[in-house]
Recover the amino acids of this structure.
């Protein structure tokens, strides 16, 4: 049985679902960030699979952009986590309720 | 044959480390598992002939982003507290339902493959030259925009992480 696009796509789906599960189950802020990275990564894998299947470079360019976006997201997200940790001495996202009166 | 074996070994490692990221107890262990996961995904990129993207993945993702996350984890000693570790009652069941539903949906969408195997690739595919041509002609303005985005993110991160908010 040869490994085709379907295998890569199903693997990407499994990775994405695991990322969703992490976001839904976990309450630690950093764990949520890690799960988001997992989901972005699953998307990247699907993009590269389609780029390979249709033999075009566009899919890879999109992955390039997504990786850059992920870097920006991680930097800002971690800065927010640090500020939040200083304020509340906790990383539980349920404690992030300053805007909720 | 070697291709198939490499795929299944990488797939096992990849899903195993992703499960550790989601279910692991210690946040540092989860961070290391995620770094490992990103490296295995770079392995898949290599299997898909996207050589340059595999190197970018290892350098930027596993080398840059993950080191940043691990630095924050270790410097600030942020751990999930005992009560944060356990999901709430409704969160557990709702999360399980949503996850299972998404899994079923994605598998239903991917059940029937339209193509069983990859077509032959052009010799250009995945090279830095092909990617660079694409990036600096068709995607020139997005490329410039994303550099501005990185600058904004950098300034924002420095501002947010300052001692006095």
């Amino acid at each position: 049985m040869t490994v085709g696009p379907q295998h890569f796509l199903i693997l990407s789906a499994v990775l994405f679902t695991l990322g969703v599960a992490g976001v839904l189950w976990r309450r630690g802020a950093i764990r949520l960030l890690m799960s988001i990275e997992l989901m972005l990564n699953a998307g990247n894998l699907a993009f590269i699979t389609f780029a390979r299947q249709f033999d075009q470079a566009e899919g890879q360019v999109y992955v390039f952009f997504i990786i850059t976006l992920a870097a920006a997201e991680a930097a800002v997200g971690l800065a927010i986590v640090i500020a939040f940790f200083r304020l509340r001495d906790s990383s539980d996202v349920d404690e992030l309720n300053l805007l909720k009166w | 044959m070697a291709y198939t074996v490499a795929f299944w070994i990488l797939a096992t490692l990849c899903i195993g480390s992703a499960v550790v990221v989601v279910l692991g107890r210690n946040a540092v262990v989860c961070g290391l598992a995620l770094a490992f996961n990103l490296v295995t995904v770079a392995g898949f990129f290599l299997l898909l002939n996207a050589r340059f993207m595999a190197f970018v993945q290892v350098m930027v993702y596993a080398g840059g982003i993950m080191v940043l996350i691990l630095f924050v984890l270790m410097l600030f000693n942020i751990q999930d507290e005992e009560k944060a570790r356990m999901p709430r009652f409704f969160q557990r069941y709702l999360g399980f339902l949503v996850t299972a539903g998404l899994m079923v949906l994605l598998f239903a969408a991917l059940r029937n493959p339209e193509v069983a195997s990859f077509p032959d690739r052009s010799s250009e595919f995945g090279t830095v030259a092909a990617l660079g041509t694409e990036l600096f002609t068709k995607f020139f303005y997005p490329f410039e925009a994303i550099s501005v985005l990185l600058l904004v993110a950098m300034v924002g991160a420095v501002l947010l992480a300052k001692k006095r908010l």
Chain A touches chain B through 73 residues (CB under 8 Å).
